[in-house]
# Entry
Amino acid sequence: MSKLGGWASLPVLAARVARGEISAESLTEQALDRIARHDPTLGAFLHVAADQARECAHAIDAKRRRGAPLGALAGVPLAIKDVLCTADQPTTAASRMLAPRLDGRSGSVGAAWLPPYDATVIARLRAADAVLVGKTNLDELGMGSSTEHSAFGPTRNPWDHQRTPGGSSGGSAAAVAAGLVPGALGADTGGSVRQPAAFTGSVGLKPSYGRVSRHGLIAFASSLDQVGTLTDDVRGAALLLDVIAGPDPRDGTCAAKPAPALLAGCRDAELTGLRVGVPDEYFEAGIEPEVESAVRSAIDALGRLGAQLLPLRLPHTRFAVACYYVLATAEASSNLARFDGTRFGLRIDAGRGFSAGQRREPRAGTGDGAGAPAPGEPAALYEAMVCATRGRGFGVEVKRRILMGTFVLSEGYADAYYRRAQRLRTLLRQDFERAFADVDLLATPVSPTVAFPLGARTEDPLGMYLGDVYTVPASLAGLPAVSVPCGLGAESQLPVGLQLLAPPFEEARLLRAAHAYELARGALP
Amino acid sequence: MPSPLPRRPRADGAWHSTTEHDVSRSTTPSTAKPPAPTVVGREQVRQLARLARLELDEDELEPLGVDLGRILGYVQLLGEVDRADVEPFVQAPTARFDGRPDEVEPSLSLARALQGAPCASERGFEVPGTSRTT
# Structure
């Protein structure tokens, strides 16, 4: 483990900067230095914005010297998953589609897309005086569970460089776990914050669906996507969510509910009276014994803190992965229609821009359908450009999901797949509603395994999907969920995550309990 | 919504090379078993790619077909619990934003909106076949 340590919790760092005990510039230099020294090995960052970060830190220190009040994240260096739009930093979603001159694994972003605006969460971080040091690696467009499906090459797990950090927010998780930055934003569609947090020993929070604005988040599956946080501790997650949560007129799916003060609620050291459900289905065949053992020990610790532990059933859990991979791919196939070579990123004009030896006719995806425009007509030229751009711009996992989504939405199949999955989603939600009538929180594992070796699942997409079995149910039900490190696997000596889930918009309850557990657990190795 | 897939098995049997049946039965009500494509053939991958406007190389067709077949085979699981009396879930009911006043606010300048385009004029995005560039 190349954990560098040395970062205090986010609220502590911000308070020290606000009091003038440490400067934003020194924190920023510390982060930039760690990135320069360690990221060539880890590959967590796609872009480091050293100049902008230094300017920003300088301005924050000047503001403090003037006596102006500083924001809640004063001077704290943060990393951002490269799926959130930043107007001053390239944004690629780890896709060739937005990094047209990407040169293989050498990793130069080249002439990558520069968004015309900041995502709402980015604007809120800036307004809170955070320092954004760079953009982190991910599975292309958020599609994957290992950060290996990045057009820039994989990120490595700081605990074992031959293993994945999980995904898709693997770059953010590795950056936090290795101590390059004290916090980062990720995004979670089916577990993309929680699973990498578990694999790297970080705290990963996925808020309720609707808690955080998605304006400026590059969309994958819009009924599931949420911006989340990766931090060293629960109080850091609470502070980040305090800053980014809340209604946004630019996102109609962002709930009108005001966000509660979460950091202020993280103070209890005991859980007397809290009812914690432990669903049988999350401990069935497939879970590694060392993961089960670590998670059950953590649940016992909740009991010792005063929580009442109640076994229960969530009977539709075993259908969740099938449900998720129908709905998420269906939504992705629609959302990704925007990548058409017109408004941003890559364009491959038919007949131009191809390297030698590539055949033009006939190719799948062009002009063989009824009613297709004749070759040479303006509409045919446009169509050929769109098909060629998408064929060259997307990586294999994205293509797989677009084709899958196209299939499940196509006439003759939508009833048997898409609508069936929508009904299953109702049953999954009802499972949780019934459970939360009897308990306040649920406690489960995050992943059936610890971090797996690089390359272990890249040739087995279905095997990769099945690893999401414990994270997709909360996504499908829109629940807030957090992954908290609960020790190391006895055999592998790799981190294991405890997942806590709460009813929608009960982040305060969720983080209060996660914080109490963290206090009782003590420092990790 | 993409245009329809063919409603009958193709002559080469590509869609269901191991499980032969009439795909038109896939519109059956939710109590029936869904179709069980365990192998997705090259021609069907080609057809899906056309619907998705995705140009694929010939050597991509077969591996994608194998993967799609495995994934579609797995999601047949949904047929085991399907109940026609359950309402499909569409969107989280508590997550609706109540709207905002209908007031004009500043928006992106044309130049900024066009800054990331692969090809643009002073008037807007340009694409082959419908612009002066082609």
